[in-house]
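Sequence in, structure out. First:
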Amino acid sequence: MLLYALILALFCVYFYLNKSSNRNDLCKFPEPPGHPLLGHISTITSTTSIIYNLSRYIENYGNTLKLNIGPSVFPLSKSLVTIDYKFVKFVLSHNKILKKSQNYQFFRRWLGNGLLISDGDYWRRHRKILTLAFHTEILKDFVGVFESVGDVLIGKLGKYDGKSSVDVHRLVTLCALDTICETAMGTKMNVQSGENSQYVESVQQMGRIVIERTLSLIKVSKYTFWLTRDYYIQKNALKILHGFTLSVIDSKRNKPVEKTTKRMAFLDLLLKVSHDENILTIGELQEEVDTFMFEGHDTTAAGISFILYCLADHPEEQEKVLQEQKELFGDDKNPPVTYSDLQDMKYLECVIKETFRLYPPVPIIGRYTTEEIKFDDSLIPKNTNIIFFIYGLHRSSEFFPQPEKFKPERFQNFNSAFPYAYIPFSAGPRNCIGQRFAMLETKSIISKIVRHFEIKPTLPRHELKLSVETVLKSVNGIKVTLKKRN
């Protein structure tokens, strides 16, 4: 305890001296009251308090405000939080504001310099290479995998027929991981059968730790992080995560690369570039695999789970999804679904988009200014974090009348004049490279579940407890009731 007290005292002195030198930065923007030393982490104390407090700040102080998430050495100590459309569009479309906000550095031990974190020419070069892995012809080849992996999920869900509730997020996450392994990585890992499920748990642990390090006096610094239990949890999680991705790479690397005129999927493309063109080192290759394994399953699993929750709460909309399926396939629960069929699921696409509006899988993203920038009549200083509160932006009545209401029809005639009002996959040069992959997978899984099950709310109704853990989660699960259709 004495050691903790001494460290805290030293931090306090250092933080105060540094804070005093920055107190005039961003002074034009409104700032909610905060602790004189700790800033706003006196109220934003956990992953479950982020959504509530940011929503409250925006409501009371305007669409762009200044926050100090801790003393000056904290990664988000000098930040603007915004849902202002003009500002969002200005920054996300800007070709010189591409660096991620400072809190992303907590991903380094896990994802290295992968596409999520890298910037500059390195990022541009890797982005150009990886874009080739998401060509339409490749996505068409993945539809069969979406369907076969989804069939395993249907079997797992069938065990809960008539039960009081099932936490769909847990099962969908395993399905999404199997999908990403078999499609982008070209390797069957059979996670849904109980193999390699430690990977999923480790991803969840790392997601929590990354956010909590942003908010903790002790965890924020590598010099004191080792004093906490999370340091050892992270150490063990990283061993599992890196071991899993290495096993995926090794399963492909030791096989000769086939000479083919076909377009290649993600890992095959990386291996070819690394082997033939000597552009990627093996270390860089693993960092990109780690990044896409994480981003390619965790966000999709969250999105699918929230869609099931919304359909359970809205039986009329669920019936419309079912009728669309019957128009395409009749009463066949297991039709041979094609890429064209998935494209024709227009109402289901509206349901997906509306759910992603209310529950964006990535509710917060950030950028970092490496030079002073001018926006309207304001100068944004160098070294400022700009935090886009997507969850709040998507619930703005300026763009979405009755924003708290679930209305998929709003996306049948969505006003494309304001493309930056709806950004579940980010926007601009750093938008999500795998968004079309995610939409196809989501359509495949949701349509399959709706054909097989009626989805109902639990009794009593399960209330979500939202948490920001790199992706949007519910700390008490996402629970529904399932009933097999005749």
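Second:
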Amino acid sequence: MKKLTMLILGVSSLTLLGACASANEPDSTDHSEHNMTTTSSSMDMHHHSGEVPEGMKEASNPKYPVGTAVTLKEGHMPGMENAKATVVGAYDTTIYAVTYTPTTGGDEVKNHKWVVQEELENPEEPFTKGDTVVLEANHMAGMQGATATIDQAIEGTVYVVDYEPTDGGETVTNHMWMTEDELTAE
């Protein structure tokens, strides 16, 4: 059974890397939606099976309460766009798009969506566009500890979802983060 699990993990990793490989365009510099021109080691995404950071405040009146069936309008990762999902968490916070250079080396990642206030070093005060911060988020290899520039700051509700990838992959649990405008009710 252990060998079967390792085989499945290996095949899943190769599938993810193959899907990301199509984003390797030499002249591409906009890395929004996680399309990156980086080494394969920095493509190690941890958006699923994550833990909500300490100090997150549950949303008092989310548009999509926990348990709501939604469709994902954005594709942060392969198989996400138009996927059917269920909201498993909703939190009020400040949400950021950031640009950073991975601590593991490689090209700058531009407009990474999304990091929340509670995933920043010294998160006491909200930051604004142009501010420099240190990331505590560990969404992808080389992200944690990286210095980043805030590209966008949004006050609002951020969502955690479980979804069925449209590319036939395994169910993704606890994907962090989706903004309200990236979801639509079923």
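Remark: Residues 1-48 have pLDDT under 50 and may be disordered.
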